[in-house]
Amino acid sequence: MNSITESASVLETSPDSSWRRSDTMWMLGLYGTAIGAGVLFLPINAGIGGLVPLIIMAIIAFPMTFFAHRGLCRFVLSGKKGGGDITEVVEEHFGVGAGKLITLLYFFAIYPICLVYGVAITNTVNSFIIHQLHLPTPPRAILALILILGLMTIVRFGKEMIVKAMSILVFPFVAALMLLAVYLIPHWSSAIFDSASAAGSMTGHSLMVTLWLAIPVMVFSFNHSPIISSFAVAKRQEYGDGAEKKCSRILACSHVMMVLTVMFFVFSCALSLSTADLAQAKAQNITILSYLANHFNNPLIEWVAPIIATVAISKSFLGHYLGAREGFNGMMIKSLRSRGKSASEETLNRITGIFMLLTTWLVATMNPSILGMIETLGGPVIAMLLFLMPMYAMHKVPAMKKYSGTIINVFSNVFVALVGLVAMSAIVYSLLG
């Protein structure tokens, strides 16, 4: 929290220290990208190990997310070109070859998540039509096309409209999560405390393994790296040299909001269920909302759950689409440049939009199980790009060295690097296990 106070005190003396409406929109946009479908699985993974791992995860949630995303934001801002996104900055700092590789990895860290959200929103709306509205099952291809076209229509209005849509959608989503968390308070029990006392004999080894395997889920649930590049570029155009301090302040506010609301929801769900219930939910491979609806047999939750899930998936798709488009455009730019050609941004966006529409629709229609692909492919790449690459750049890139001098920066950089290594190794462990 010292870093937040430090940033705030510096900003007070800055000519651009006033908080603008655009800052609020971006704060909510960052929150909206991170807090999506992944949060609906987080209570299961976070609470399944009992109370002690849950408390430790609550403590590390803010520094883990804030320091990592601030590092990536600083990396994007370190480029010499004012409008250069992450793909351009990577090429500037690490060369053309590394630029192509990182751009490819950046795209494949985000693109599969967009495909998952295409499948998820189709399944959620389809289930709602069948079980709540009691209507016949619509043709899956048509339903998927309508839903994805709806999301792509928002995309066509541009980056500002995407951020505005996410900032609007975030209000009903947060309200619904908080109301559900409050609704569950009368159902709180001592079950998780009983499991904690039973696990009081939990060895240090088993506690560390539980935390080790939970960190990748936290990385995925709080991740909003796809929108960080667009955020940094927009703020650099707005604030110029003062962009880094303003970005840090916006990120801090967004992450405080993120951690408080999500961890309250996680604790409320975990206190309402036993670790055995959470293990059963994990085995059934369903969201915590679906399990709560079945567990308490409550018609209100049965109606609210799919609405919350649809809003969560929609805004997460929009935020991740910005990153996927940036990566795909970057690959096309580098391919064209190697052949001495170029294309306008509007043309690139149109090609990317057609590609994303067709592939997302095709995958949503086929309805494959690709969550495992995200955990085994997307997770390590996200950890590498979000946690490790900016930390590496701080030691290799002259423009980044100023962020590695103070004790606070050294601590935060080492912490972020360790979390990134743990996230990558935990996924390898789960694959081998």
UniProtKB/TrEMBL annotation:
<keyword id="KW-0769">Symport</keyword>
<keyword id="KW-0813">Transport</keyword>
<dbReference type="GO" id="GO:0015293">
    <property type="term" value="F:symporter activity"/>
</dbReference>
<keyword id="KW-0472">Membrane</keyword>
<protein>
    <submittedName>
        <fullName>Serine transporter</fullName>
    </submittedName>
</protein>
<feature type="transmembrane region" description="Helical">
    <location>
        <begin position="141"/>
        <end position="158"/>
    </location>
</feature>
<feature type="transmembrane region" description="Helical">
    <location>
        <begin position="101"/>
        <end position="121"/>
    </location>
</feature>
<keyword id="KW-0812">Transmembrane</keyword>
<feature type="transmembrane region" description="Helical">
    <location>
        <begin position="303"/>
        <end position="324"/>
    </location>
</feature>
<keyword id="KW-0997">Cell inner membrane</keyword>
<feature type="transmembrane region" description="Helical">
    <location>
        <begin position="347"/>
        <end position="364"/>
    </location>
</feature>
<keyword id="KW-1133">Transmembrane helix</keyword>
<feature type="transmembrane region" description="Helical">
    <location>
        <begin position="250"/>
        <end position="273"/>
    </location>
</feature>
<feature type="transmembrane region" description="Helical">
    <location>
        <begin position="25"/>
        <end position="44"/>
    </location>
</feature>
<dbReference type="GO" id="GO:0005886">
    <property type="term" value="C:plasma membrane"/>
</dbReference>
<feature type="transmembrane region" description="Helical">
    <location>
        <begin position="205"/>
        <end position="229"/>
    </location>
</feature>
<feature type="transmembrane region" description="Helical">
    <location>
        <begin position="165"/>
        <end position="185"/>
    </location>
</feature>
<feature type="transmembrane region" description="Helical">
    <location>
        <begin position="410"/>
        <end position="432"/>
    </location>
</feature>
<dbReference type="GO" id="GO:0015171">
    <property type="term" value="F:amino acid transmembrane transporter activity"/>
</dbReference>
<keyword id="KW-0029">Amino-acid transport</keyword>
<dbReference type="InterPro" id="IPR004694">
    <property type="entry name" value="Hydroxy_aa_transpt"/>
</dbReference>
<dbReference type="InterPro" id="IPR018227">
    <property type="entry name" value="Amino_acid_transport_2"/>
</dbReference>
<keyword id="KW-1003">Cell membrane</keyword>
<feature type="transmembrane region" description="Helical">
    <location>
        <begin position="50"/>
        <end position="68"/>
    </location>
</feature>
<feature type="transmembrane region" description="Helical">
    <location>
        <begin position="370"/>
        <end position="389"/>
    </location>
</feature>
